[in-house]
Fold this protein.
Amino acid sequence: MPLAMTVPILVLSIILIITSLLLTLAILIHKSRGGGMSDLFGGGMSTAFGGSSIAERNLDRITVVVALVWLACIVALLLLWRAVPAA
């Protein structure tokens, strides 16, 4: 495999790992709908206040952006691997 193909695959793989971890963390921090991992971070206490806070909406936006980057990395890796000639 030529070096010109190896470097982008390596970079996208690292970005994919980082975004996977960030996406998992962002999903776990979301406000719970009744018990769950977000209660560990104080999510259970915020249910008494009701409504959607600015922080929760920002977390939603961040989660969507990270998910789109994650999906773009997967598609780009697929296209790069298909472009690599078979040995």
User: Anything to note?
Assistant: The chain has one domain: 3-83. The radius of gyration is 18 Å. The longest helix spans residues 54-83.
